[in-house]
Design goal:
- The chain is mostly helical and 604 residues long.
- Among the domains are: 67 residues, no CATH class; 32 residues, no CATH class; 107 residues, Orthogonal Bundle (Arc Repressor Mutant, subunit A).
- The protein is built from 27 helices and nine strands.
- It has a three-stranded antiparallel beta sheet with strand order 7-9-8.
- Helix 8 packs antiparallel against helix 9 and helix 17 runs antiparallel to helix 18.
- Keywords: DNA replication, DNA-binding, Nucleus, Phosphoprotein.
- Pfam families: ORC3_ins (PF19675), ORC3_N (PF07034), WHD_ORC (PF18137).
- Belongs to the ORC3 family.
């Protein structure tokens, strides 16, 4: 009886069990039915209602931010994909009307755009034929080809010969990088006061690092945020309060006793109880109506805090974004990550940034102050503190505009300096006096005094409004910082490979690979699994001949007496399994000895 599985290269297993995939229609029906079942289960949950409402709002903003036309979801069979059909559809959609017969202006005919994202990997012959066919239809179908070239324009000329490239007019342009798109989505959608759900510092760093160092995929980043949101809201109905202020009161009216108990299990609830009076402590723990009023008040305060937090974080970004060496970072997301993790005004980077601001000229400071005053004024916040900040900033702007930057020099001070130098009787005394003069503070002119007062005012303002969210009660409702989802976001590839190679029955679900214990090796296991378990018992250098003998003992123990006569089939299986181990990164060929391989992985 033959083995139901055959090992092939690159760690892929082909099953010979007559399995036939189900039809697409049945799969789609199963997916639709399962989706309806999940929705019917969750649609009555308060947390799921808040989650779906917020995510639909975010998704709509993301779609509105991309300037894409409506997609045509017309299904066409592969056999019908012909240029004659395309021409008929185009002429029906954009008919050519005679201007004499109609008074209306003719409908503007749109260009058919064909995008080939990965140009280098595209088949040259097919691409050449496609361009030649398109060129013959240009009189009836206006085409524009967009080639995604990752290297240089020379790749275009190498793939398309002269008789093909002469048919097209080439224009080179560069698209924005994915980092720019990510910054736009973060600054306009996620990192705003309109989005109550916020990522904590550790989770935000995880998502950003995965984006920058792994895939540079904006869609992947959005999927990660969506997963984090679902994980956050699934904690319970307490997270349903992560919503807009206009829906807050109606949500609290739907809360049950169990929902209020869910709120009482939050970590920040303890600090709230400890800061209350003894009578109020008992009410918070036992009276749901009293807790409802406190929740409404505290969450309203937190939402107001988020609004001012983002406002003054943008103001700080305006001040520090172009400083030398960028102590607080070049991007707004870096500023957000720092401010969510810790008190940003107490960091060394913040103090260094304000020291650099102390050297800025009048024109630079005037532009930044004007922009900050515009940001705060356009927010529409009518609180007394914000109005006072705007009034003070406008006063500083007027002072800078009317300043005369002439230094006030005093002749007496210069004479005093000369007297001090002339009184020195020795070189050592002169050195000491000059050193003392360097430590003396230089008199400031009017602009420098005003700039110092301005920076002091800005520092105090940022200290007031840029507090960390974890200092406020119920911050867990709005800030998600559970780093345990890392294993679901990144995945542990080596652990999965180890599990598959040590215990293939967990993935193959076959009875022939059932192990009595983890250390045993069966001859019915795939060859790569046998060699993997054998190589775990070896040292740094593995002798291939010894490994082959061990492999033969397991695969054909009855023919182990004649070691010199090795069947070609077994030798080929062994060679293929070693190649698979090398492809997976467990071994590599050794330069020290030709008949050895080097082991690359070690258990912790």
């Amino acid at each position: 009886m033959s083995d139901p599985t055959v090992s092939v290269s690159k760690g892929v297993f082909v099953f010979k069990n007559g399995f036939k995939p189900g039809s697409t229609k049945s799969k789609n029906k199963n997916k639709q039915s399962s989706t309806k079942t999940y929705n019917s289960i969750l649609e009555n949950k308060l947390w799921y209602k808040s989650y779906s409402k917020l995510w639909n709002k975010i998704e709509k903003k993301i779609q509105d931010s991309s300037d894409s036309d409506e997609k045509i979801n017309t299904r066409i069979k592969k056999s019908q994909c012909t240029f004659s059909l395309l021409q008929g559809w185009y002429e029906a959609s954009y008919p050519i009307e005679s201007p004499k017969r109609t008074k209306k202006p003719p409908k503007k005919r749109k260009i058919l755009v064909v995008v080939i994202p990965d140009f280098e990997s595209f088949n040259d012959k097919i691409l050449q034929d496609f361009v030649l066919i398109i060129s013959s239809y240009l009189n009836v179908l206006p085409f524009a080809l967009v080639f995604g070239v990752a290297t240089s324009t020379s790749a275009l000329h190498k793939s398309l010969p002269h008789h093909v490239s002469s048919r097209i007019s080439v224009k080179v342009f560069q698209s924005q990088t994915s980092v720019v798109y990510l910054n736009n989505i973060l600054e306009n959608i996620f990192l705003t006061a309109d989005c109550p759900f916020h990522l904590g510092g550790r989770i935000f760093s995880l998502f950003i690092d995965q984006f920058l160092f792994y895939d540079l995929s904006v869609k992947g980043f959005i999927r990660n945020v969506k997963y984090a949101m679902l994980e956050h809201y699934s904690y319970g109905n307490a997270m349903a309060l992560c919503t807009d202020q206009k829906h807050l009161k109606s949500l609290l009216n739907e809360f049950t006793h169990d929902d209020f108990e869910n709120v009482r299990h939050l970590i920040s609830f303890r600090s709230l109880v400890e800061n209350e009076q003894p009578d109020n402590r008992i009410k918070l723990l036992t009276n749901d109506d009293f807790l409802k009023d406190v929740l409404h008040q505290e969450i309203t305060t937190f939402l107001e805090y988020l609004r001012t937090f983002h406002l003054f974080l943008k103001c700080l970004y305006v001040l520090v974004q172009d400083l030398p060496n960028n102590p607080l970072g070049k991007q707004f997301r870096e500023l957000y990550r720092t401010s969510v993790n810790e008190l940003i005004t107490s960091t060394d980077e913040f103090r260094q940034s304000f020291r650099l601001l102390g050297f800025q000229s009048k024109d630079e400071l005037l532009i930044k102050l004007t922009w900050i005053a515009h940001l705060i004024g356009s927010e529409g916040n009518d609180s007394v503190g914000i109005k006072k900040v705007i009034k003070t900033l406008n006063a500083f702007v007027k002072q800078i505009e009317n300043f005369n930057l002439k230094m006030e020099e005093s002749g007496d001070e210069e004479n005093d300096d000369v007297v001090v130098v002339t009184k020195a009787k020795s070189r050592q005394e002169l050195k000491e006096k000059l050193l003392k003069m360097t430590h003396e503070s230089k008199p400031l002119n009017k602009y420098e005094k005003m700039r110092k007062e301005l920076l002091t005012f800005l520092t105090q303002t940022f200290e007031k409004y840029l507090n960390t969210p974890k200092e406020l009660p119920f911050h867990e409702i709005f800030i998600f910082n559970d780093i345990s989802i890392r294993q679901h976001i990144e995945g542990i590839q080596m652990a999965s490979l180890h599990e598959a190679l040590v215990n293939p029955q967990a993935y193959l679900q076959c009875q022939c690979c059932t192990l009595p214990n983890n250390s045993s090796i069966l001859k019915t296991m795939p060859d790569v699994c046998i060699l993997y378990k054998l190589h775990l018992e070896c040292g740094k250098l593995i002798n291939l001949y010894d490994l082959l003998q061990s492999f033969l003992v397991i695969v054909e123990p009855e023919n182990n007496e004649d070691c010199k006569a090795i069947k070609p089939e077994l030798q080929a299986r062994f060679t293929q399994a070693v190649a698979e181990l090398e492809y997976l990164g467990f071994v590599k060929s050794s330069k020290r000895k030709a008949d050895h391989v080097t082991r690359l992985t070690w258990s912790a």
